[in-house]
Amino acid sequence: MPVWLREHSWRQTLTAVYLSLPLRGARATPANIFCSEQYLKVSIPPFLFEAILYAPIDDTSSTAKIGNGNIFFTLYKKEPAMWDSLTLADAGKEKLQYLRENAVVKAQEKAKEETEAKKITKQEHKKYALEATMKLEEAERKRIKDLKEKERQKVAKELEFWKNQQKDADKYKSVQKKEELHQEIKPLKERTNEKMNKSRIPNEGTSKIRLKSTRGCHGSCSIFSQNLKEEQLPAPRAAATIKVNFTPRVFPTALRESRVAEEEEWLHKQAEARRRINSDLSGLEDLKEEEKNPDWLKDKGNKMFAMGNYLGAVNVYNLAVRLNNKLPLLYLNRAACHLKLRNLHKAIEDSSKALELLTPPVPDNENARVKAHVRRGTAFCQLELYTEGLQDYEAALKIDPKNKNIEKDAEKIRHLIQETMQSS
């Protein structure tokens, strides 16, 4: 025979009813509670509590909180009004039986509708994800095609510009050679004319010189041949090969297109990371190559968490943290595992470390900061440190003020703090 729980306390507002039910040492779980629009049942063998409520409630938004040896119900009324009592005064066995059966049937129908809705929503999400992926791939292909076209046009312009420069250089060289030849031939002609004019003057000195010069020559020797010997052009330059050496670079881009300071910083960080990994993995030489990648370990830990293997996920996240202790998502995911395993102090520690790494606060890390505050606040509340938990939930609301779930949880924590203060 069940033992009926008669002791309970309740209070109300225009929109909600707050019911407190003592457990008398029994351990309750959400599976022990059943609630519909006008029927409430708590079955914790050997204890039983049933109530036909005075008026219908919104069973979707109503909540139950188990803790401190009590069950705290927050029942939201469908219509704002003050109830005369918690239960109907004239509820007989037939009406109780009818409401009980009707509540079970409605709960089954609601569960079936929710299952169907989840199935449809899942299919829609898959379809949307596929369409979004196809759009992204199409956009990426178009972007690559546009980049190739731009690069082709750029190279074509540079080649045309180089050809024009070569033509201008060739023209300049030809003009320069002509000017040099003209400058070399002009003084030669002037000297030749001067000597010819001197040879025409009838005097004794010049005649003797002319006779001497003609006597000492053989064949076709003349003044022009002597001048050509004196003004002989230099020999052409010998051909040679110039070897050009380029400074070796880690990055494939040209130096004129690179940011040297950022590249040096990246190389320094990579070297530090390699030294840290080698020092941390001194005793883990048997690991595979992919097992030394923190991102691969994070994905593996997420899969284990999804399958319910929380302890295995914690071990994977531990190894990933050893490899790289600067990734906030590793601490954030490990905090979720600790919450599932009831390691509340470790969950608080990991959430705090994640918040420390998620600085400065920017729009890209808003979602991660909200999760960190909520998980730390949940751990505080489970440790019955409601004031600290409320501070974290309020911090999460400041980041994401439109999140209704966080707002409801914060309101529940406020009620718990008020009830704790009243009871004390």
UniProtKB/TrEMBL annotation:
<dbReference type="Pfam" id="PF04969">
    <property type="entry name" value="CS"/>
</dbReference>
<dbReference type="GO" id="GO:0043005">
    <property type="term" value="C:neuron projection"/>
</dbReference>
<dbReference type="GO" id="GO:0030331">
    <property type="term" value="F:nuclear estrogen receptor binding"/>
</dbReference>
<dbReference type="GO" id="GO:0005576">
    <property type="term" value="C:extracellular region"/>
</dbReference>
<keyword id="KW-0966">Cell projection</keyword>
<dbReference type="GO" id="GO:0007368">
    <property type="term" value="P:determination of left/right symmetry"/>
</dbReference>
<keyword id="KW-0539">Nucleus</keyword>
<dbReference type="GO" id="GO:0007399">
    <property type="term" value="P:nervous system development"/>
</dbReference>
<dbReference type="GO" id="GO:0120293">
    <property type="term" value="C:dynein axonemal particle"/>
</dbReference>
<protein>
    <recommendedName>
        <fullName>Dynein axonemal assembly factor 4</fullName>
    </recommendedName>
</protein>
<dbReference type="InterPro" id="IPR008978">
    <property type="entry name" value="HSP20-like_chaperone"/>
</dbReference>
<dbReference type="InterPro" id="IPR007052">
    <property type="entry name" value="CS_dom"/>
</dbReference>
<dbReference type="InterPro" id="IPR052004">
    <property type="entry name" value="Dynein_assembly_factor_4"/>
</dbReference>
<dbReference type="InterPro" id="IPR037894">
    <property type="entry name" value="CS_DYX1C1"/>
</dbReference>
<dbReference type="GO" id="GO:0005634">
    <property type="term" value="C:nucleus"/>
</dbReference>
<dbReference type="GO" id="GO:0036159">
    <property type="term" value="P:inner dynein arm assembly"/>
</dbReference>
<keyword id="KW-0963">Cytoplasm</keyword>
<feature type="coiled-coil region">
    <location>
        <begin position="104"/>
        <end position="165"/>
    </location>
</feature>
<keyword id="KW-0802">TPR repeat</keyword>
<dbReference type="GO" id="GO:0007507">
    <property type="term" value="P:heart development"/>
</dbReference>
<dbReference type="GO" id="GO:0036158">
    <property type="term" value="P:outer dynein arm assembly"/>
</dbReference>
<feature type="repeat" description="TPR">
    <location>
        <begin position="370"/>
        <end position="403"/>
    </location>
</feature>
<dbReference type="InterPro" id="IPR011990">
    <property type="entry name" value="TPR-like_helical_dom_sf"/>
</dbReference>
<dbReference type="GO" id="GO:0003351">
    <property type="term" value="P:epithelial cilium movement involved in extracellular fluid movement"/>
</dbReference>
<keyword id="KW-0524">Neurogenesis</keyword>
<keyword id="KW-0175">Coiled coil</keyword>
<dbReference type="InterPro" id="IPR019734">
    <property type="entry name" value="TPR_rpt"/>
</dbReference>
<keyword id="KW-0677">Repeat</keyword>
<feature type="domain" description="CS">
    <location>
        <begin position="3"/>
        <end position="87"/>
    </location>
</feature>
